[in-house]
Design goal:
- The chain has three helices and seven strands, in the order ααβββββββα.
- It has 177 residues and is of the alpha+beta class.
- β5 and β6 form a beta hairpin.
Length: 177
């Protein structure tokens, strides 16, 4: 199974991100301290901007990969006897207001969502394909096209966030047809 979670940036993209992060952070700091000595405030803002860029562009992603990476890779669902995982999809499932991080596992009979251990609400959600009435697109926060809504025949709704939503919907819909 290939990893559908990882996003790779080119050095050009990283450099542009670093430049714009530094520039806008420095601009914000500069605008808050406009009445003081302009030269020293501008230098201070640029230095802070560079440090914040180093943190958010390089150190924070590295730290998150170290903190969360193994926890996501080690997620294993509780399977029925003779059941095998055929597909894994990195996802978040909304349980109330919490977007619970984890993976969707697809088997021959059901869709399984298993959370990773860093969530407040942990556990496994099982949805049999025979109980799924519809799989729909949805927008996260009414703007981002990365959501899937699964509606069961009992009108229970499961709202997920996934990468490459259209492909994931096709994969799930093939299993329920």
């Amino acid at each position: 199974m290939k990893n559908k979670f990882e996003v790779k940036f080119s050095w050009k993209q990283i450099t542009l991100l670093a430049f714009f992060t530094t520039f806008f952070y420095a601009l914000i700091l500069y605008s808050f301290n406009i009445e003081e000595n302009l030269k020293s405030i501008a230098v201070q803002a640029i230095i802070y901007g560079v440090f914040m860029t180093l943190f958010f562009v390089f150190l924070f992603p590295w730290f998150m990969k170290k903190l969360v990476g193994n926890r996501i890779d080690n997620i294993k669902p509780i399977l029925l006897e003779n059941e095998k995982v055929e597909e894994e999809i990195f996802a978040n499932l909304f349980r109330g207001i919490e977007g619970v991080g984890g993976k969707i596992f697809l088997t021959k009979e059901r869709l399984i969502f298993k959370s990773h251990s860093l969530n407040i609400q942990k556990g496994q959600t099982n949805i049999k394909y025979s109980q799924i009435a519809a799989v729909e697109k949805r927008k996260t926060m009414k703007t981002v096209d990365n959501g899937i809504k699964i509606i069961t025949k009992e009108n229970k709704e499961y709202c997920f966030i996934v990468n490459d939503r259209d492909t994931q919907i096709q994969i799930i819909q093939k299993r329920i047809s």
